Amino acid sequence: MPIEVLERAQSELTDWRGSGMSVMEVSHRGKDFVACAADAETRLRRVMGISDDYAVLFIQGGATGQFAAVPMNLTLPGDRISLVNTGQWSTKAKKEAAALGLDVQVVADEAASRYTTTPGPGSFAAAEGSQYLHYTPNETIGGVEFGYVPDVGVPLVADASSTILSRPIDVDRFGLIYAGTQKNMGPAGMAVVIVRRDLIGRARPGTPSIFDYAKMADSDSMLNTPPTFSIYLLGLILDWVENLGGLEAMGTVNKDKSDALYQFIDRSPFYSNPVAPTARSWMNVTFLLARPELDKQFVTEAADAGLANLAGHRSVGGMRASIYNAMPIEGVLTLIDFMDDFAARHG
């Protein structure tokens, strides 16, 4: 979370809009919060360039819930979909779709590279008869990322949880974008769904109302009690993004941050990055130490230096620096200085 947003939320925590109450205490049906939610949607549309052809939904839960909600809204049992598998989150989406009775055609799978690559542009297409193609633009665990938006001829569905708001995106190229908010949009507990209106209104029987996109759109995401604090904080973050210059400016900063860290790793004989240069994530920079037996010591010393959460996912090991929007470039440079010092002492 950006420190500016946290400080603003702190200042308003006990007296939001002169109400004498927190935003978490006011009625979610009251005019003040209804206006807050409408403002968050308006800001998101403005920042991302989302047209009225798309519904914007704020849904409790996270991206994992959307692994099921997307098939429930866009398919019937027995339908075919296509999927690109670039790591653990793609695999989870595949399993959920298959559990809902879909014929899941994996049209590209990067297992041969141990998920350190992404398929090249034009190297795959949707299987015939597919209702949509699902892909994960950025895999947080492996630190791999698509450098392009696939053109596949069927509605494109993207789990953009870890890249949304990090740079400009052409929403019109997608049928549906969903994202958990816990990376660049606020705290955990909410998913944002951006779905083309012509794709909704045909949810399969038995779909829970709160996961029915048409019902949620018709109720302005207030079919049930909405996640009020998450919506409020999303609005503050969008205000912060706009004040910094929007997604163009955000993209420039994020590219500079990741470039600085990758350049240091590539020059160092002590560190290495396993991901193909064309598939390197801007958000999740993974790296290995030349002496793996020092991994735990690296993490401990980094934490002592104020650099937290650097241990890689247990499934892949090594290190992972997640440098989402809220991380300033000064934080990345501090990490580089620590890595340089650690290598000098242990290389």
Overall description:
There is one protein chain. By secondary structure, the protein is of the alpha/beta class. It folds into 2 domains: 3-244, Aspartate Aminotransferase, domain 2; 246-346, Aspartate Aminotransferase, domain 1, CATH 3.90.1150.10. It has 9 helices and 12 strands. The protein has a 7-stranded mixed sheet with strand order 1-9-8-7-4-2-3. A hairpin with a 4-residue loop joins strand 5 and strand 6. The radius of gyration is 21 Å and the shape is globular. The relative contact order is 0.14.
Notable traits:
12 strands; Aspartate Aminotransferase, domain 1; 3-stranded antiparallel β-sheet; 7-stranded mixed β-sheet; Aspartate Aminotransferase, domain 2; 9 helices; 347 residues; alpha/beta
Describe the SSE topology:
Blueprint: H1 3-12, H2 31-48, E1 54-60, H3 63-74, E2 80-85, H4 88-99, E3 103-109, E4 130-135, E5 138-139, E6 144-145, E7 156-159, E8 176-180, E9 190-196, H5 213-218, H6 228-244, H7 246-267, E10 271-272, E11 284-289, H8 295-304, E12 319-322, H9 329-346
Parallel strand pairs: 2-3, 2-4, 4-7, 7-8
Antiparallel strand pairs: 1-9, 5-6, 8-9, 10-11, 11-12
Ranges where pLDDT stays below 50 over 5 or more residues in a row are none
* Tally of separate helices: 9
Q: Indicate the CATH class of the largest domain.
A: Alpha Beta
CATH topology of the largest domain: Aspartate Aminotransferase, domain 2
- Elements, N to C (H/E): HHEHEHEEEEEEEHHHEEHEH
Helix content: 25-40%
Count structural domains: 2
Radius of gyration: 21 Å
Strand content: 15-25%
Number-wise, the strands total 12
Indicate the mean pLDDT: 96
Instruction: Output the CATH homologous superfamily of the largest domain.
Output: Type I PLP-dependent aspartate aminotransferase-like (Major domain)
CATH hierarchy: architecture of the largest domain = 3-Layer(aba) Sandwich
Shape: globular
Q: Which sequence of strands runs across the widest sheet? A: 1-9-8-7-4-2-3
- Measured between the Cα atoms of the first and last residue, the distance is 34 Å
In quaternary terms, these chains amount to: single chain
Largest sheet: 7 strands, mixed
Classify the secondary structure makeup into a structural class.
alpha/beta
